[in-house]
Amino acid sequence: MVTETYTPPLGYKILTPLYDLVIRYLTRESAWRAALVKQINPLPGDRVLDVGCGTGSLLAVLAEQCPEADFIGLDPDIDALKRASKKLHSPNVRLIPGFLSKEALPKGWQPTKITSSLMFHQVALEKKNEIAEIMRSLLMPGGELHIADYAMQKSLLMRAAFRMTVQQLDGVEDTRHNAEGILERILVAPGYLTEKTQSFATATGSISLFKAEFVAS
């Protein structure tokens, strides 16, 4: 088990019902989410794990795009998963409550692709690298990681936007490492071809997309 605590969407359980609206209107969701879906490119036969799936917005799009793939959404927040279940009506999507671990997944189920969006910035520093390592350990050979999150905030404007929004809700300590470039470091590992593919300036700071492909034999 990675951790027994978590930060709810928007930092507080009472704000969970507002999460989808806030993400939609303040983060340019239609732009970065569409780019992430295109990057993941689910194909028939893929087994896609969404870590910290939250309210299920990404899973809903992926499942609609490729009904022949198999999807699992993993999240410890029961309230968020209840909201996700209302969006997801495809038989190829399963929601599992819990934290990331091999034991959390169905026996014999190994992902070909793992994704996560807006999760890493809410995790304590000592757990960020651990989560990335577990993700890599779960992947099939030739598998891919696809991450969308707040990463290094390069401009003063984006850093200020991040400070006034995300850090006010999710806390400074867990989030500041993302703004300082922790994702750019922990997503790089031997045997993986890692790149930051795109960045999107938003009212809450810059959201970046990463792809890490398992290329080792």
Question: Can you offer a commentary on this structure?
Answer:
The protein is 37% helix and 23% strand. By secondary structure, the chain is an alpha/beta fold. The chain has a single domain, classed as Rossmann fold (3-Layer(aba) Sandwich), CATH 3.40.50. It has a 7-stranded mixed sheet with strand order 3-2-1-4-5-7-6. The longest helix has 14 residues, at 125-138. The two termini are 28 Å apart. The model has no long low-confidence stretch (mean pLDDT 95).
Give the helix/strand layout:
Layout: H1 19-26, H2 29-40, E1 47-51, H3 57-65, E2 70-75, H4 78-87, E3 93-97, E4 113-117, H5 125-138, E5 144-150, H6 156-164, H7 166-170, H8 172-179, H9 182-186, E6 192-202, E7 205-214
Instruction: Please give the alpha-carbon distance between the first and last residues.
Output: 28 Å
The strand order across the widest sheet is 3-2-1-4-5-7-6
Stated plainly, the CATH topology is called Rossmann fold
User: Cα-atom Rg, whole angstroms?
Assistant: 16 Å
Overall number of domains: 1
Number of strands: 7
Percentage of β-strand residues: 15-25%
- Low-pLDDT sequence parts: none
